[in-house]
UniProtKB/TrEMBL annotation, chains A, B:
This is Transcriptional regulator. PANTHER family: TRANSCRIPTIONAL REGULATOR, MARR FAMILY. The keyword DNA-binding applies. It comes from the Bacteria. GO terms for molecular function: DNA binding. It comes from Chitinophaga silvisoli.
DNA sequence: TTCGGTACTTACTTTTTAGTAAAAATTGTT
DNA sequence: AACAATTTTTACTAAAAAGTAAGTACCGAA
């Protein structure tokens, strides 16, 4: 039987794997912003995602990084500058975001 | 500012709403199965989704029903027969599933 | 009158996720 | 020496999600 692997997690179906990778209260919103902007700084992400706490934002960024969807670039300046961007694998998830956004727009009031 | 509403939950962006609707350990897998099969019985879903417990399956089915993505048809027979199927709104999320599945296949081993 | 088959339901526990708020690290500027 | 700006980190608490396992309801057939 075919298997799918992300990090050290193994799944029996691609939907299960994908579901696991994007599961998180703010992950899709993070990916959505990064899909529109080439790269974004931590502080900028924080401002753009209303209500996200610093803890959750950094936690989700770490997980997305570990799963290979985004990369973190640290510029050794003072004050520090950190930029996040989609990786190649991350860019390949953009069609999902686009379709999802379109679906969500059905619920506009 | 535009708003998006699902049930009694209001969101500022369509991605946030969509994210909320599909957030759940097995929801995308349920939607995936229903997208391929026209309709499916409870017991069949349970067999097809490995490891899901009866509690979680029914809970997710209820939430998807409340959010208007699926509908539940009870046939008053003995033993009882219950069929689940995508609604029109549910069918409109199929492109998301398709894109997600394609993305997940990148991780085949 | 007990059993089979289907679809749940309930009570309880454990695990995971999220929220809050304060602190840390860095170093050039005042 | 204190401050500013930015990106975390930490400790603690609270809430939500998930797991486990047993129980319920229906009714016709054996």
């Amino acid at each position: 039987m075919e298997k799918y692997k992300l990090g050290d997690k193994v799944f029996d179906c691609p939907v299960g794997l994908a579901s696991n990778a994007i599961n998180g209260k703010w992950k899709l919103q993070i990916l959505n912003l990064l899909s529109q902007e080439e790269c974004m700084r931590y502080g900028n992400l924080k401002r753009r995602i209303e209500d996200v706490s610093e803890k959750m934002l950094i936690q989700h960024l770490r997980e997305l990084e570990q799963d290979g969807l985004i990369e973190r670039k640290l510029y050794p300046e003072v004050p520090p500058r950190v930029e996040y961007a989609l990786t190649e694998v991350g860019r390949q998830i953009i069609p999902v975001i686009v379709a999802l956004k379109q679906w969500g727009q059905l619920f506009r009031i």
